[in-house]
Amino acid sequence: MNNLPILIITGRPAAGKSEVIDFLKKADPKERLERFHIADFEELDDFVYVWETFEIDDMLTKHGKPRIWTDEKYWFKDHFIWNLYMERINLEYRKKLARDPNYHDKKTTLVEFARGGDNGIYEALSYLHEDILRRVHLMYIRVSYEESVRKNHRRARKGQEDSILFHSLPDEKMEFYYKSNDWDKLEAKDSNFIEVKGFKIPYAVFENEPEKTLDPKLIGDELERVAKKLWSMKSRS
């Protein structure tokens, strides 16, 4: 097997996660496998669940029922919703394995999410099922908070708020949820692995400041560097 089974792609909002995945979608399958160790892939992106949460609460409001997870301005009422999204990822992934125990002989799963706060990334990882943890590698796309805000403004498209590539957050939510995160703390503990529930997750950092994700050649070069590191650690994870 020449492919990474599961790759988590995480980072701040608008860091470049979706742009990297879009690049992989457009890549030649043979080159994608040989250069980046990504086979034909399926995505599990928790933004889909976030948007679904908003839609369900809006439907409840329409019918005079109380909203469950968000208020009328789409602020979350309960922090646990972030972890519920990880459970949704667990569920969808385990369905794939149940349908085909040899799923990863021909497929890579890409998992995408963003988390902020003093323990946000680690908390999200801690909710992953062991079926994922034993197979997963992680790529963190690094940009500063200021760069994340700049790119969040740039990608907004009116009428496409539900789009993976073109959704954006209001500034007040960017600051509240994402001004800080725990990546530096995780990286300081170990330059190669993040230990979660006894599993060691190999990781590498895609450096995206100055920005690379507007140029396919720059994306490819940086992604190849990251993939080589992850692949070299595959047997040691």
SSE inventory with pairings:
Elements: E1 6-11, H1 17-26, H2 29-36, E2 40-45, H3 46-62, H4 81-99, E3 107-113, H5 120-126, H6 130-133, E4 136-142, H7 145-155, H8 171-178, H9 183-189, E5 193-196, E6 199-207, H10 216-232
Parallel strand pairs: 1-3, 1-4, 2-3, 4-6
Antiparallel strand pairs: 5-6
How would you sum up this structure, described in words?
- The protein is of the alpha/beta class.
- The protein has one domain (6-236): P-loop containing nucleotide triphosphate hydrolases (Rossmann fold, 3-Layer(aba) Sandwich).
- The chain has helices at residues 17-26, 29-36, 46-62, 81-99, 120-126, 130-133, 145-155, 171-178, 183-189, 216-232; strands at 6-11, 40-45, 107-113, 136-142, 193-196, 199-207.
- Strands 2-3-1-4-6-5 form a six-stranded mixed β-sheet, sandwiched between helices.
- A hairpin with a 2-residue loop joins strand 5 and strand 6.
- The chain starts with 5 loop residues before the first strand and ends in a 5-residue tail after the last helix.
- The model has no long low-confidence stretch (mean pLDDT 94).
End-to-end separation in angstroms reads 16 Å
Mean pLDDT score: 94
Write down the Rg. Answer: 18 Å
- Please give the count of helices: 10
Shape: globular
- How many structural units, i.e. domains? 1
Query: Which consecutive residue ranges, at least 5 long each, have pLDDT under 50?
Result: none
